[in-house]
Design brief:
Helix content is about 55%, strand content about 20%. With about 190 residues, the protein is an alpha+beta fold.
Length: about 190
């Protein structure tokens, strides 16, 4: 009655029992998997990584939980699965292999990916808002000092005009430093 795929493998990882649920998860019939390695159904990179983990668990005769891996269905589509297993022993305590379950976590992985993407989008939007605010402040300063400089030019007040031009230069320097810090982020 479970929606999980139940299986048994020998110490080398070859299937000795596969529940019919493999058909729903990978598109293979149970008989097609018997004698094949559990790594035969994984993507190449996940098979290499998981094979090492399996060999370690077999050597230590230890359980393993929630190994995430991508598998290739018979139709070529990739699905994300999660596997847990425990060693199986004979009556003399010798390890025979492992019994375990595998469940489809494709939807969960897709939702996690969407969440990460939306979080990145939100962060970028907040950063853009903060940058726009800072740039607006610099533009306001520059505009204000330029207006003052024009007024002081009409009054022919050299001292105030010089102060306004110095303030404009300082604001431009701040804008340049701000632009450099933005470029350093990218």
């Amino acid at each position: 009655a479970t929606t999980d795929w139940i299986w048994e493998v020998d110490t080398g990882g070859a299937f000795t029992y596969v529940s019919p649920r493999i058909r729903d998860l990978l598109g293979f019939e149970a008989g097609e998997a018997i004698g094949r390695s559990l790594f035969d159904f994984m993507t190449e990179s996940d098979a290499a990584r998981t094979r090492g983990l399996f060999q370690c668990a077999a050597g230590n005769q230890s359980t393993f939980e929630r190994w995430e891996h991508n598998n290739v269905r018979k139709d070529g589509r990739t699905v994300s699965l999660e596997t847990s297993g425990a060693p199986a022993f004979d009556h003399e305590g010798k390890i025979l292999g492992f019994r375990g379950i595998t469940r489809d976590i494709t939807n969960r992985k897709q939702l996690e990916h969407q969440l990460r993407r939306s979080q990145r989008t939100e962060i970028v939007a907040r950063l853009a808002g903060a940058l726009a605010h800072d740039l607006n402040n610099l533009v306001t300063l520059l505009t204000g000092y330029a207006d003052l400089a024009c007024r002081h030019l009409e009054l022919r007040d050299q001292r105030l005009l010089r102060e306004d031009i110095d303030s404009i230069k300082t604001s431009v320097d701040h804008a340049g430093a701000f632009a450099k810090s933005l470029l350093a982020i990218g």
